[in-house]
Each structure stands twice: as structure tokens, then as C-alpha cells.
């Protein structure tokens, strides 16, 4: 059973439907105790960094999310759910994130020939191994919708890179923690394959456990 964190900042149903399509089971929760008891956890998100952290803190979910990651059980962040893992985001001011990964979230600063947000299909390339990417070919397409991107302080956590005006981090992997800037639930067969690989993980077969 995959537990999806509900903090009113994303289309949770589309994530749930994608998980069910690959044969998994998923439920929503905004209860810290249910997060603590989850087998696998997904943190999705669409919207502004500061608003998202306000909602997470209002529901007292931040400690539960951090503690879950520390247990070694599989964790997946999606889009804003990737960005919130970092220390600071600069959307409409400076906001503290969950601080699980060192680094920051910054806005694309690109020539006028590039539209922001970065929206639509783009290709990725592997930069480091990840158990979610073992069957992924280079130049695989995924679907992106974002105006901000993460700059990890530790480049070794980046497992996929993407180019939009310049290279940016499209996915991070560290032990049991995985997070994507793209939306696997909107990325057709490629996204479903990634979710299928995540669904197959458990605390006994993720790196670092």
C-alpha cells in the first residue's frame, strides 16, 4: 500500500489512478500517525513553495515526513514534492523547506526565447544510478510543468538531468529517497514504468538499508 500525503496542494487522484494502473494500491492521508505507519510514501504537489510549506506545517506533517525518510522505507516526491525536500525556496520571498536534502529552489532565469514555466515533454539523461531507472533508456521523455528547479548542494544526489536553457536536476536519489521534477503520473508509459519500479520497492530492497 502506497500512502499519498494530502496537504491540499496537488491532484492526488491522478497520482492514485496511475499507481492503481500499474497494479498498486494507494490511499490519501493528512494524518501524521498514518504517515508514520506507511509502507511507502509519496509527496506530490502543484503550486507555490511557501503556500505548500504553510499547509504542511499547519497540519504538523513536517516531522512525520522527515521521520519517515529516516526509517529507510521507500519515499517518492513529485514536482513540488521534490522541491519541498530542500532547505530553501525563493518563490515570492524566502521560505524554509523540509531540509531533508541540502540545497535551494530557484526560478528559471532564461532568455525570452524560452517560456517560463517550462511546460511539456522533454528528454532526460542519467547522471547516476538509481533502482527506479534500471530499465530507463537515455533520451526518455517525461512531462514537466514548473517555473522553479532544485540546485542540490551535493551533486551526487542527482540521478537525472534535463536541459531547458541550461542543465537542471530532473530527479534525485539517495538511499530510500527518490523525487522527480517531472510528473510520472502524466508521462504515459515512461512514467508508469518509474512508478512500477517504486511500487516494487520495500524496506529490504532499497539502497542503504
Automatic annotation (TrEMBL):
The active site is at residues 79, 183, 185. Pathway: Amino-acid biosynthesis; L-histidine biosynthesis; L-histidine from 5-phospho-alpha-D-ribose 1-diphosphate: step 5/9. Residues 9-189 form the Glutamine amidotransferase domain. The keyword Hydrolase applies. It is found in: Cytoplasm. InterPro entries: Class_I_gatase-like, GATASE, Imidazole-glycPsynth_HisH. One of its GO terms (biological process) is L-histidine biosynthetic process. Its main location: cytoplasm. GO terms for molecular function: glutaminase activity; imidazoleglycerol-phosphate synthase activity; lyase activity. The keyword Lyase applies. Keywords: Amino-acid biosynthesis, Cytoplasm, Glutamine amidotransferase, Glycosyltransferase, Histidine biosynthesis, Hydrolase, Lyase, Transferase. Its EC number is 4.3.2.10, 3.5.1.2. GO terms for cellular component: cytoplasm. It catalyses: L-glutamine + H2O = L-glutamate + NH4(+); 5-[(5-phospho-1-deoxy-D-ribulos-1-ylimino)methylamino]-1-(5-phospho-beta-D-ribosyl)imidazole-4-carboxamide + L-glutamine = D-erythro-1-(imidazol-4-yl)glycerol 3-phosphate + 5-amino-1-(5-phospho-beta-D-ribosyl)imidazole-4-carboxamide + L-glutamate + H(+). IGPS catalyzes the conversion of PRFAR and glutamine to IGP, AICAR and glutamate. The HisH subunit catalyzes the hydrolysis of glutamine to glutamate and ammonia as part of the synthesis of IGP and AICAR. The resulting ammonia molecule is channeled to the active site of HisF. Heterodimer of HisH and HisF. This is Imidazole glycerol phosphate synthase subunit HisH. It comes from Stieleria maiorica.
